[in-house]
Specification:
Elements lengths: L2 E4 L3 E4 L18 E9 L2 E4 L6 E5 L2 E5 L3 E8 L5 E9 L6 H13 L2 E4 L4 E4 L5 E8 L13 H6 L3 E7 L4 E2 L7 E5 L2 E5 L4 E10 L4 E12 L7 H13 L2 E5 L2 E6 L2 E8 L1
Antiparallel strand pairs: 1-17, 2-8, 3-4, 3-5, 3-11, 5-6, 6-7, 7-8, 9-10, 10-11, 12-13, 12-14, 12-20, 14-15, 15-16, 16-17, 17-18, 18-19, 19-20
């Protein structure tokens, strides 16, 4: 029985030379967008079913494609936009051509056009490189006032109930896969294999906060009936950067994108 190590790399792209110009108005803050189309292979192609998202905050464009992207952005006169330093995770992704379409859109974009129903990045000739539609703003859910969420997070065995995947949602509830946090450590089962590693967490509200895992080590037993589920769970843990509680359920997030819902034992 062997162990293997999972890790996340970081990609930093170069700063755009024109970013010294001052913007005349702000980026569309406090809005969330779902990418519906990307320019790929000489054509604007639909990617709406992938659940790729965008949001702007503090001169930054945040995107969740397969990897997470954070890009410096400045809006200038007459809707001209400039992008700068990009920091990204570098996980292997099944739909890598769509990530290439996204990064090329940022590299070639000259204008940002927004309305209440549409966001577009276009090149100098007006060709649409990226198109997105608005997502509803999240409304805070009422949580039970008498719950000690810090104790709940670290004293509970959390079973994976739903995995949110790019192609479909998966319900591995019968696989016995679970996650447990104990201090600065995480351990659990992804199916028939066990995993363990580091965990860092910090509450930012009474029921939500930051959560990261890694590096994680996993046993490598052959599990024909659970192999896909096991890989999906380990990828989700790699991507996780935050969490929130919805009533008594634990939700793992990457930015604003839901990755998984876990139920208590």
């Amino acid at each position: 029985m062997k162990n293997h190590l999972l890790s996340v790399s970081i990609l930093i792209l170069p700063l755009h030379p024109l970013l010294a110009q001052k913007s005349d108005r702000g980026l569309p803050a406090n809005t969330r967008w779902q990418i519906s189309h990307l320019w790929m292979d000489g054509k604007l192609r639909e990617v709406k079913e992938r659940n790729y998202t965008l949001s702007f905050s503090d001169s930054t464009l945040n995107a969740q494609v397969c990897n997470s992207f954070n890009t410096a952005a400045w809006l200038q006169k007459k809707n001209r936009i400039q992008f700068g330093l990009t920091i990204s995770t570098m996980m292997a992704c099944e739909h890598h051509e769509e990530e290439t379409g996204y990064t090329q859109a940022l590299d070639q974009a000259k204008y940002l056009k927004t309305s209440s129903s549409l966001l577009q990045l276009t090149d100098a000739k007006g060709r649409v490189l990226l198109q997105a539609i608005p997502l509803p703003n999240k409304q805070p859910e009422m949580q039970p006032a008498n719950l000690d969420y810090k104790a709940l997070l670290t004293s509970t065995k959390w079973f994976f109930k739903t995995l949110f995947l790019s192609e479909k949602n998966e319900t591995p509830d019968g696989s016995g896969a679970y996650l447990q946090l104990e201090g600065a450590s995480a351990f659990g089962k992804s199916g028939c294999n066990s995993f363990k590693g580091n965990a860092e967490w910090m509450f930012s509200t009474d029921h939500a906060g930051r959560l990261t895992f890694g590096p994680l080590m996993s046993t490598r037993m052959s599990c024909p009936n659970h192999m896909e589920t096991e890989m999906n769970i380990l990828r989700i843990l790699e991507k996780t950067d935050s969490f929130l509680f919805e009533k008594n359920m634990l939700v793992l997030l990457s930015g604003e994108k839901r990755l998984a819902i876990l139920r208590p034992q």
